[in-house]
Amino acid sequence: MKKTWKFLMMLVVLTVFAAACSNGESSDGDKVTLTAWAWNVNVGALEEAFEVYKEDHPNVELKVEDIGRLDVYDKLSTGLAAGGVGLPDIVLVEDDRIGGYVNAFPKGFLNLTEQGFDKKTDLFPSFKNDLASIDGTFYAMPFDAGPTGVFYRRDLFEQAGVNPEEIGTWDQYLEAGKKIKEATGAQMLPIDKFKDDATFRMMLNQQGAYYFDAEGNIDFTHPAAVKAMEMHKKLDDAGLIKNVDGWNGTVSATIDASVATIPFGAWYYGTIIDQAADSNGNWGVFPLPAFEEGGNRAANLGGSAWMIPSATKNKEEAYSFMEYFSTDVDAQLVSMEKYGLFPSLSSVYDNEAFTAGVEFFGGQEIWTLFGDEMKDIPSLNYTEDYSIGFDEAVKAQADVFNGKDAKTALEEAAKRLKDRTEREINSH
Predict the structure, then answer these.
(1) Which residues are 300's β-sheet partners?
(2) The pTM is what?
(3) For residue range 188-226, what is the model confidence (pLDDT) as tens digits?
(4) How far from the centroid of its chain's Cα atoms is residue 334's Cα?
(5) Can you tell me the distance from the alpha carbon of 240 to that of 189, in angstroms, rounded to the nearest whole number?
(6) Which residues pair with residue 86 across a beta bridge?
């Protein structure tokens, strides 16, 4: 009888042990280690959030690999093509690449709608929800965004007697630039004329247009694109565009005050306070000018989201942590205040830390300005051909700066893009 009782007790112990293991909580304290791929300041933001998260989840650990933005995409594409081999539990993906990855690898990422993330849509602006989902199904959790504005030098504006509050349209921006250049010698904005089209993209987005329309059709010949490119030409003809060489050229122009404004995403705040520290208090921000009086002044440049490869062995743990990180106000405030990552989480925008004035910007409430803009940013469709579209847009821009008519340059770009995308389809 004693032997039978001991045997039964052993069965109970084994059953409890097995149940604990099935919940990821073994009796000897085994831990689940999540791996994540990210780059730059995103790494620190994720790690700091996890330090708080693990207080309530002691059996979960996190290992974040900072392997560089392009390396992330190379390794991710290779792993997905191999059926998920070697992939992490969590990966950071820029908004412009989400649709392309899901379309190319429809089974490659965890369906977050099935996990209940569709119940969180009211926490984020509609344009971020649109970017994180494909045909209504969520495959990504919105993270940072790039609401745009015009960062400007207060001293140059004051020297020229220009009031930024009176700049409501791009034509008014052009006239203000002429005054500033005459009074100070500074040009109005930096553009890498032959390698990047950031200002063109902002101008398109604020008008509700982009390289492709909502159905994925090439949209370079849209009147909004012609307007945007013609404005580039006007600014250049007036001598207001400083041609810079890539990112470093833009930063140099920011530091030496050779330009009076930098139209960019909110994330450029971090670069200004880091690289132009001696200009503390001498900066301000105003919304992008519109193309007509009372027109939309909201656009987005940049932004990313977190995705969970479906090959993960830690689906529940990965989803739980990323849901926390994406929807926790304090975690998102740390990402913004310490790392300059503008949050997509709408509930952050009412927080006292968010609405306070920023000393470096003369006490201006710049985060409120950017936050108010988020609801008015038009959705866009990057498609899987975004990188080819970008390439052709830059070529069209270069043609315009070299003297070609804007409409003609865009029509030719549209034709080249059509030819290239058709070849891409046929090659598969």
Answers:
(1) 147
(2) 0.87
(3) 999 999 999 999 999 999 999 999 999 999 999 999 999
(4) 17
(5) 7
(6) none
